[in-house]
Amino acid sequence: xxxxxxxxxxxxxxxxxxxxxxxxxxxxxxxxxxxxxxxxxxxxxxxxxxxxxxxxxxxxxxxxxxxxxxxxxxxxxxxxxxxxxxxxxxxxxxxxxxxxxxxxxxxxxxxxxxxxxxxxxxxxxxxxxxxxxxxxxxxxxxxxxxxxxxxxxxxxxxxxxxxxxxxxxxxxxxxxxxxxxxxxxxxxxxxxxxxxxxxxxxxxxxxxxxxxxxxxxxxxxxxxxxxxxxxxxxxxxxxxxxxxxxxxxxxxxxxxxxxxxxxxxxxxxxxxxxxxxxxxxxxxxxxxxxxxxxxxxxxxxxxxxxxxxxxxxxxxxxxxxxxxxxxxxxxxxxxxxxxxxxxxxxxxxxxxxxxxxxxxxxxxxxxxxxxxxxxxxxxxxxxxxxxxxxxxxxxxxxxxxxxxxxxxxxxxxxxxxxxxxxxxxxxxxxxxxxxxxxxxxxxxxxxxxxxxxxxxxxxxxxxxxxxxxxxxxxxxxxxxxxxxxxxxxxxxxxxxx
Length: 497
Known about the structure:
alpha/beta; 18% strand
């Protein structure tokens, strides 16, 4: 038995001391970009993100819609692996079909569909408009567009067909595939359009350009895209069916993979990492984890991990610590792993980014995680609150919530993530709700503004500088309790984490 002479600490037990704010410390000069995968010290990472926030590998968070939205704001999302290989690969492919500015049309119907059917489809997808094609597919012959504004239940029979209320293609402004994004946006604004269909010579729909995407690009100028300008997306894998799952995800276009496990310090993960290196070399990037100390980080880094995830039991719906008695406070875990990361970089010349996963209860904790040295953050509860999350929106006692469940819960039954070979025999996560917070885009804007404001107060213009110069102090137990009570009193459906 070994007992470490330390206290396991969380982010809530620390505060940052302000440093000198210079004239260089302005919001427009703050660089939040971060490396995602391994690279030589002094060289750029093959995959960087402008917004150091990534969506968790969770069924309640992962979806093509979420992945596209997170990529639009400069982050990255991972499609969950608690599904069939074919279904996960299809979700990855759905994201890759979208290019920055040019979207794959994901809401499509036949002209024979009823108004009731299209109403339900738009409501379920939280969309306002759909393309009408001859076969109801995204690549069918475009016949028209139909939106929520084209019919009303008090004026039109919902048994009528979509064809009776759609705007036929002859009345639409369309553009050829040769049009540039700049030209498409000019046409949208000159003709006061909300959507511009891109149609080939054979009349088939190839993509659509949305006014909303133009506005988002002006707000978030650094979308996460690949060389072909398609949105980047990650995917989770496990240590059981990886020989079949990884090739399918690579074929679908996944930009980065991540081993999804509550405890990643295992020979099983090392075997997967070595297999990927032997089969793909450096052409496939894969992260590993989760770990809580420098020893485990070193093990996975030596095995070939492109990044390492830190955190066991810190998630809001994770009960691993209660069930198995393992874990570590996220602040303590991150501090230990970051020290090992920097030592590994100095010894080998290879920088392996660290992802902090869990323990984020409010925006200030994000800033603290970066001060401790995290390169990027993986979050579940934060993203699960938004419109773009795949979970249902429910109303309880006059307030709106989104359903949220852990991968270790009975609802998810993700036995492969938790190493329960006989199936999920006990839970390591719970099933519950998070206060609904609205649009991802609006909330991420506020979060980034807060992080930048913290960095300005601490005299930093980059995440690396922030980590190197940050000064932190522990708060007393009484102060911590008082702060927790104040946060609880202030929490509302729009601000809760």
